[in-house]
Amino acid sequence: MAGSEAKERKILVAVDEGEESAYALSWCLKNMVAENSKDTLILLYCKPPPPLYPAMDGTGYLFSDDLIASMEKYSTELAESVMVKANGLCKEVNDVKVETRVERGDPRGVICKMAEKLGVDIVVMGSHGYGMIKRAFLGSVSNHCAQNVTCPVLIVKRPKSVAPNNCSQQII
Amino acid sequence: MAGSEAKERKILVAVDEGEESAYALSWCLKNMVAENSKDTLILLYCKPPPPLYPAMDGTGYLFSDDLIASMEKYSTELAESVMVKANGLCKEVNDVKVETRVERGDPRGVICKMAEKLGVDIVVMGSHGYGMIKRAFLGSVSNHCAQNVTCPVLIVKRPKSVAPNNCSQQII
């Protein structure tokens, strides 16, 4: 790879608020992206789908419009915060061309769909993918993507001994 | 990555007689290994374990010593053939430092064990991993490794439209 012959690659990195996805992004920047390359890093964040059937909630409060608006605001702010953090990491480690995408839905479907739609060359993600709580309900996002995405999938597991965002023990 | 700052990385590539693993190796050579890098590619081939309980076979022929010797010979020749092919691919695409390892046992366990033992930086494998027939019995090798190997795992799926060993549609 790399060198002057290298064409532009599209690398889709699934990011979330977890430390594992930050580690995966760091690892990718240090191991996949060559300096001065023409690669484009597409950071994909997946917002949770809106709660279903608000009218069926009996409390008249839990799923009120106010609460839904608050959840939406929180979700949007969280997405922005994750993207700012991820962008910062990109600038810090490797000044690569970065695009950001925020989509909504089940991360398993969203990642597969976006990988296909954007015609990316590789998908990079943490092994847990999209947080431990969601994983408990949805199953392993990375397993699903490894099986269903047609391009290569790189699954990065954060070593337990490594502090967040620090992959200096990996090769630079 | 890459550049003069790059340290030596160990990249473990699981190879077998299938076209998918050849494609995974090609993809790795073109997308993961920088020219003139200090990376070492470790090609790992896993021979099937010897048949169990030969004495319990009622036919007195199927698991005779002769047949076991023939199977072992075939298995060894197959391993050599795969390694010659894989080595040729490495020389052809990218003149990287290559080591070969032939181990015996369940590929799922062997890959995880060797990744740990050799302290590799990344494991690369085809998504089916170790042939369709074995996969039917053993389950997905790549899924198992993605869950159990502690370092990053790159799972490469061969596009249906791509001829064996040809990943020219990928980035060079």
UniProtKB/TrEMBL annotation, chains A, B:
This is Uncharacterized protein. It comes from Vaccinium darrowii.
